[in-house]
Amino acid sequence: MKRKSLFLAVATLLAASYVNAGQLTTEQQIAEKSAQIFHDTNPPAMVMAIIQNGQVTYHAYGETAKGNHTSPTPDSLLRVGSMSKILASELLVKLADKGALGLTDPLQKYAPPGMTVPEVSHGNPVTLLSLATHTSGLPRLIPGQAPAGAAPFTWPDRPARWRWLNQKPTLTAPWEQAQYSNVGYDLLADAMEAAGKKPYLQLMRENVTGPLGMKDTTTQPDGAQCQRLMEGSGIDPAGPCTDTTAAAGNGGMYSTARDMASWMQHLLNIRHSDKPALRAVQQAMYVQRQQLKSITGLDLAGKAQGLGMGWVFIRPSVDSPVMIQKTGGGGGFMSYMVLVPGEKTGIFVSVTKVDLDMFSTLTRETNSLIPLLLKAAHGERVSPAS
Predict the structure, then answer these.
(1) Domain limits of the chain?
(2) Is this model's pTM higher than 0.85 or not?
(3) What is the rounded CA–CA span in Å between residue 174 and residue 187?
(4) In the prediction, which pLDDT does 49 show?
């Protein structure tokens, strides 16, 4: 803890000296606030990428493994967890644009031979869009335990989840309620693989990560990449650096803060932009909260106003417009991304600890950075107390 206390003390003293001199810049305030987030959440390591008015800055704290005295960098490898779902939703839109599939196609169209997707409500099947918006009626997880010694994000594999679905489990009708579903996104990835007639990771590289130069965003890290993987901790076991393709659509992606920054610039229409129509489809709100009987597992970073394809919409406040966000966690890491479409503003942050109370603090304080970024981008004077 000494390293954290010392860092925060230095940051506070520097900030105080700038305030006294009337010279505290926006950049210095952002650095101070990011250091405060690290202190308040207290993980072994934290990396943050901030997009402000289109420009990227990085902040990193702690050490990549306990006691190694090595600071993380923008190229330190991490697990983005459920942010994999947003990558999957972008791939879904790209494949739809190419005519390989339709957003409202029933999942049954892409089921393996002999497998049947239950239809709870006649004429209202599970569709790719309902899977992407967590309104398919599928549960968060399938019943049962992973095999002993299974690494994070390696179970259930494709055969296991389809066997479960083919047994006609009790589901709710699509579009009636929202239930965060990991298995739903794994089935969505299976459908995209069937529609695209190529392995999922190959489709992702060809359509999303490759064109953006996201060389470290993968489910199959090589030896050199594994050497850069930070050490996770907390209530969810870290596990080995291994192939996590089994959960590629749900949470199996590895990445770096640098890759996430490149992706945010793409999503915010700063560089390597999609056609406006594609971006609109991917970042649209498809269901509003009041249209649903209930929402479960989607209010972690703030009460959801509505749901997109993986994205959760946060209500506007006095200080900020509507934001879209995605949380991710597992395998010793927790990550968060929040964007303000149309403002070229966004934040990605990842910590090497799984702790839900800590994560609540992380998302709340990260969200509180957005008004500061927006005020500075609009040329407004930002007071040191903001």
Answers:
(1) 2-377
(2) yes
(3) 15
(4) 99
